[in-house]
């Protein structure tokens, strides 16, 4: 959890090939910054051990003290210019270390509590007829997958075509209006998207309607602007020379876009779409309103309520029943599963950008 | 193949800005015509007007008449896509399609226009085009490697192969050698000498020696000042331009007194 690097043995490098130009007299040996941070960590742990031990505060102390130690020793031995350089390096590194604290502690805590029910039963059973121990989130996992797939199916064509319009065709006022509206849509609170979709379907199908498809529509409202934005940026990166090369061959514009622009940008487009999916897969509020929750498995998004992982976790935590601990365990496992889904999607995005990027190697 | 181009009273605009004024010129078939002049004088703009690539830029338009063997390129029933198929273009920076192999790059003009060709015919065409661009011997063993892996000069010849694969009547070249070293430049100049038997070639260049080496006709563009439109000052056989030009400005430019 701390940010220090292990101090390198002092005699490894530099000493074997001493070069006066590279190793002037007043230069800190390589191990000093590491040692400073190790000392700072020791002091911080000591400080915290006196009161209630708090790992976040310990990291904060380590960062502050380590930076101070490095700066003081560098100032004494290397002079002010090098000291400023090291100070800024330490500040940047420390900021990263502190930013990692919430992420790592969250992953650690969710894994620790969620691992208890991370078993086969959790993935193969629904909550149908379960009171207390056992049961799983099969229905919620499948619900999340179905609704997310449906959302993607709605959002990607609309988002991608909008981005293509904005980059390749749009001019003047209409383009500015669309860009503005997409920006506004990006900022819509998710609960508003849920209420919109609920109101829309209640108008047609009567009040009290709960439908997987309505959830997909609500999530699309959130996902479309993200897809538009990321696709637009990626399409703008395609060099204009490629478009001109294609047009100069006598290829019509629409075919240039389909055969040259989009394939060149496909890695970025895939990454953007995957990250947009990761953005909406954990949305709770809109699904709470539009899809509701159920204990049974329902795979048909066009009929009745469906369970989804975020809403499942929410209900297991807020209405655990008696005794509560089994439901709360299930909620943690659902949270763990959601984090894993998002991480997996991010990983997929990286793989896409690696394998589909235009090959430039000789 | 190889058609002549007649321009009369051509004015070229970017929005309201008149970039090139009143060009009247005839470009002969089966010859190389060079356009020279200082930066910003409208050579490239004029070149792009010849195959209707100018209007790709928002707000850009062309007035006047440009005809290729009597066919009005800007007439009401002229299709810019069809014009560009007849008049190919090679750009200043080599721009092979990064997602395609060398083979696919050459075949791109046909593939992208979804012409159905038999595999053997397409192979023949690719080989013929690459041979035409003097590149076949260098790439015949790696036709399936990405085109962006070639050197700059090879990439430029790949772009020429791609342009001649669609068998245009005219080939426009916009400073095709300005990003290349002398050896690659020589390769491309030799190539132009070969290609002019089959195509009408128009080349824009900043290199006056190159214009003198490769072209039969030379046009000199100039402008009076920044913000003024560029004009065609003189259009004459290359020997005349470089030995005894009609205009004082041409002589000043060629002898290095300005520009």
Tag the structure with descriptive keywords:
heterodimer, A: 362 residues, mainly alpha, MetI-like fold, 2 domains, 72% helix, B: 259 residues, alpha/beta, Rossmann fold, 10-stranded mixed β-sheet
What does this structure look like?
The complex is a heterodimer of chains A (362) and B (259). Chain A is mainly α. Chain A has 2 domains: 32-116, no CATH class; 124-355, MetI-like fold. Helix content of chain A is 72%, strand content 0%. Chain A contains 13 helices and no strands. Chain A has helices at residues 31-50, 55-78, 80-114, 120-124, 138-169, 172-186, 190-205, 212-237, 240-248, 253-281, 285-290, 309-318, 325-356. The longest helix of chain A is centred in the first third of the chain and has 35 residues, at 80-114. The two termini of chain A are 42 Å apart. By secondary structure, chain B is of the alpha/beta class. Chain B has one domain: 3-Layer(aba) Sandwich (Rossmann fold). Chain B is 36% helix and 25% strand. Chain B contains 10 helices and 10 strands. A 10-stranded mixed β-sheet of chain B has the order 5-4-1-2-10-9-3-8-7-6, with helices on both faces. In chain B, a hairpin with a 6-residue loop joins β9 and β10. The relative contact order of chain B is 0.20. The interface between A and B is medium-sized, with 26 and 32 residues.
The tally of structural domains of chain A comes to 2
Overall CATH architecture of the largest domain in chain A: Orthogonal Bundle
The CATH topology of the largest domain in chain A corresponds to: MetI-like fold
CATH class call of chain B: Alpha Beta
Largest interface by Cβ-Cβ < 8 Å? A-B, 26 and 32 residues
Looking at CATH, the homologous superfamily of the largest domain in chain A is MetI-like
- On the 0 to 100 scale, the average pLDDT of chain A is 86
User: What is the percent of helical residues of chain A?
Assistant: over 70%
Global outline of chain A: flat
Structural class of chain B: alpha/beta
Task: Summarize model confidence as the mean pLDDT of chain B.
Answer: 88
CATH superfamily of chain B: P-loop containing nucleotide triphosphate hydrolases
* CATH architecture grouping of chain B: 3-Layer(aba) Sandwich
CATH topology of chain B: Rossmann fold
Query: Radius of gyration of chain A, rounded?
Result: 27 Å
Major sheet description of chain B: 10 strands, mixed
CATH class of the largest domain in chain A: Mainly Alpha
Oligomer: heterodimer
Q: What is the domain tally of chain B?
A: 1
Helix content of chain B: 25-40%
User: Roughly how many Å apart are the termini of chain B?
Assistant: 36 Å
């Amino acid at each position: 959890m701390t940010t220090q690097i292990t101090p390198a043995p002092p005699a490894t490098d530099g000493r074997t090939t001493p070069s006066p130009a590279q190793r002037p007299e007043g230069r800190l040996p390589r191990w000093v910054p590491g040692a400073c941070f190790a000392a700072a960590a020791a002091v911080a742990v000591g400080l915290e051990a006196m009161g209630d031990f708090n790992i976040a505060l310990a990291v904060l102390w380590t960062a502050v003290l380590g930076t101070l130690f490095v700066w003081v020793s560098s100032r004494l031995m290397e002079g002010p210019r090098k000291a400023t350089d090291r100070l800024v390096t330490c500040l940047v590194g420390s900021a990263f270390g502190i930013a990692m604290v919430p992420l790592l502690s969250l992953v650690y805590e969710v894994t620790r509590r969620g691992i208890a029910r991370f078993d086969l039963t959790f993935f193969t059973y629904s909550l149908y007829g379960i009171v207390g121990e056992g049961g799983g989130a099969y229905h919620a996992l499948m619900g999340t997958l179905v609704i997310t797939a449906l959302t993607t199916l709605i959002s990607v064509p609309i988002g991608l075509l909008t981005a293509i319009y904005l980059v390749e065709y749009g001019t003047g006022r209409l383009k500015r209006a669309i860009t503005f509206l997409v920006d506004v849509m990006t900022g819509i609170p998710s609960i508003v998207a849920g209420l919109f979709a609920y109101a829309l379907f209640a108008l047609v199908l009567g009040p009290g309607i709960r439908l997987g498809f309505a959830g997909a529509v609500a999530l699309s409202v959130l996902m479309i602007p993200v897809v538009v934005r990321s696709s637009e940026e990626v399409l703008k990166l395609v060099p204009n020379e490629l478009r001109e090369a294609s047009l100069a061959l006598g290829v019509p514009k629409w075919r240039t876009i389909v055969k040259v622009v989009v394939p060149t940008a496909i890695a970025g487009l895939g990454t953007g779409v995957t990250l947009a999916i990761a953005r909406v897969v954990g949305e709770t509020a809109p699904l709470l309103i539009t899809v509701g929750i159920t204990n049974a498995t329902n795979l048909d998004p066009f009929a009745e309520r469906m369970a989804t992982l975020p809403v499942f976790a929410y209900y297991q935590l807020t209405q655990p029943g008696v005794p509560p601990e089994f439901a709360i365990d299930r909620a943690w496992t659902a949270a763990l599963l959601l984090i894993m889904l998002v991480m997996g999607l991010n990983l997929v995005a990286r793989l896409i950008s690696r394998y589909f990027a235009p090959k430039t190697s000789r | 193949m190889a058609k002549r181009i007649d321009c009369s009273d051509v004015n070229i605009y970017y929005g309201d800005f008149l970039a090139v004024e009143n060009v009247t010129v005839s470009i002969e078939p089966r010859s190389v015509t060079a356009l020279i002049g200082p930066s910003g004088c409208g050579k490239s703009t004029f070149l792009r007007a010849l195959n209707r690539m100018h209007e790709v830029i928002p707000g850009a338009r062309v007035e006047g008449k440009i005809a290729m063997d009597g066919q009005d390129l800007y007439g009401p029933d002229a299709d810019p896509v069809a014009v560009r198929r007849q008049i190919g273009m090679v750009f200043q920076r080599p721009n092979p399609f990064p997602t395609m192999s060398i083979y696919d790059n050459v075949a791109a003009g046909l593939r992208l226009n979804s012409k159905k060709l038999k595999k053997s015919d397409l192979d023949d065409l690719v080989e013929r085009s690459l041979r035409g661009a003097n590149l076949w011997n260098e790439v015949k063993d790696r036709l399936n490697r990405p085109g962006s892996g070639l050197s700059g000069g090879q990439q430029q010849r790949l772009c020429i192969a791609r342009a001649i694969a669609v068998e245009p009547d005219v080939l426009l070249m916009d400073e095709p050698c300005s990003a290349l070293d002398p050896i690659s430049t020589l390769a491309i100049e030799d190539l132009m000498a070969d290609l002019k038997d089959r195509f009408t070639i128009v080349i824009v260049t900043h290199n006056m020696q190159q214009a003198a080496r490769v072209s039969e006709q030379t046009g000199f563009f100039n402008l009076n000042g920044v913000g003024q439109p560029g004009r065609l000052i003189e259009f004459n056989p290359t020997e005349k331009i470089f030995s005894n030009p009609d205009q004082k400005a041409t002589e000043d430019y060629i002898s290095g007194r300005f520009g």
